[in-house]
Amino acid sequence: MTILEKTLRSEKTNKVPIWFMRQAGRYLPEYRELKKERDFMELVMDSDAAAEITLQPVKRLDVDAAIIFSDILVILHALDMGVSFANGLPELSNVVNNEKDVDRLISKYNADDLAERLQFYSKALKLVRADLSPEKTLIGFAAAPFTLASYMIEGKTSKTHAKTRAWMYGNPRSFAKLMDFIVKSTIDYLQIQIRAGANVIQLFDSWGDAMATDVYGKSLRPYIEKISQAVSREVPVIYFCRGASIHREALGGLYNQGVSALSLDWRMPIDFYGESPVQGNLDPAALLSDPETVARMTKELLNARGRHPGYIFNLGHGIYPETPMENVMAMLETVKNFKPEYK
């Protein structure tokens, strides 16, 4: 069992594990070199390249987990929704406009076909797992249902998610049918990753903060619970909700529904959930300051939560591409030098 898995079980370990969101990517010089003249989706679908990129931060930084180099919309690519990153931000050529479109998706769906179309992804995971030392965790991931639904309906990154919210309010029955389909296909998608070697799963709710808290708790959280309950029978589940601070009470209930740890953004206290396992939550903007500031803020987080079992050090969101490497190293060295003295 890896140190990350032990931490997710609130077991005492001799150090605080660390990894960070988007650790495989644009802030690394070796990634920028590999990406020259290559499209993002081309790299994702090239199993060897994806595995190499996944392992780059592990080899350079000795973090405790590798998170597979991919994107939350890869599942939509496999569902023939025409995902493109040609203009930088994701765009879908096929969207879901009504219940007939949902029925069409459901009628065409087959879990074996999904696995067949994601062979490149399975291969990348297997390559990483084979090259990763046994004490390191391989993290697979997926989008939470509302986040994926927004992309399917809006066709792009939306600032308002207005079409998605309007559908949910105006036709809850057909919206529920879409969400049930997303839950089913996401569970299949995550099981593909687990079979290929992922031993922890993270769910990303990039747009979870778009909803009012009462709507989130009643209308969205049950779908997250269905996924986490199914997946947690095999591996631990971490749940990240952007803007988690507005849903802090509703999120707490996920601990009893298959979620092992909540990953918190920087807008709420890292010790809000007491002894329950948590991950986070250094503001990624801190890494744009200077090494001394990074070290100080990292120590503050460690002192606030690192003396309890069940703490994974991470950022409150993904690392920014322009982050200087010396600041990344200041964070890493501070965490690695911290020795938990458990209460």
Short description:
By secondary structure, the protein is an alpha/beta fold. The protein is 48% helix and 11% strand. It has helices spanning 3-8, 29-35, 40-45, 47-61, 74-78, 99-108, 111-117, 119-131, 145-154, 162-170, 172-195, 213-231, 248-252, 291-305, 325-337; strands at residues 65-67, 83-84, 91-92, 137-143, 200-205, 237-241, 261-264, 278-282, 311-315.
- Tell me, what is the CATH class? Alpha Beta
SSE sequence, one letter per element = HHHHEHEEHHHEHHHEHEHEEHEH
Tell me what portion of residues adopts beta-strand conformation: 5-15%
Q: Can you tell me the number of structural domains? A: 1
Low-confidence stretches: none
Query: Looking at the structure, what is the overall shape?
Result: globular
Describe the fold and architecture.
The protein has a seven-stranded parallel beta sheet. Strands 2-3 form a two-stranded antiparallel sheet. It has one domain (3-337): TIM Barrel (Alpha-Beta Barrel). It is globular, with a radius of gyration of 19 Å. Helix 9 packs across helix 11 (172-195). The mean pLDDT is 95. It is built from 15 helices and nine strands. It has helices at residues 3-8, 29-35, 40-45, 47-61, 74-78, 99-108, 111-117, 119-131, 145-154, 162-170, 172-195, 213-231, 248-252, 291-305, 325-337, and strands at residues 65-67, 83-84, 91-92, 137-143, 200-205, 237-241, 261-264, 278-282, 311-315.
Topology at a glance:
Layout: H1 3-8, H2 29-35, H3 40-45, H4 47-61, E1 65-67, H5 74-78, E2 83-84, E3 91-92, H6 99-108, H7 111-117, H8 119-131, E4 137-143, H9 145-154, H10 162-170, H11 172-195, E5 200-205, H12 213-231, E6 237-241, H13 248-252, E7 261-264, E8 278-282, H14 291-305, E9 311-315, H15 325-337
Parallel strand pairs: 1-4, 4-5, 5-6, 6-7, 7-8, 8-9
Antiparallel strand pairs: 2-3
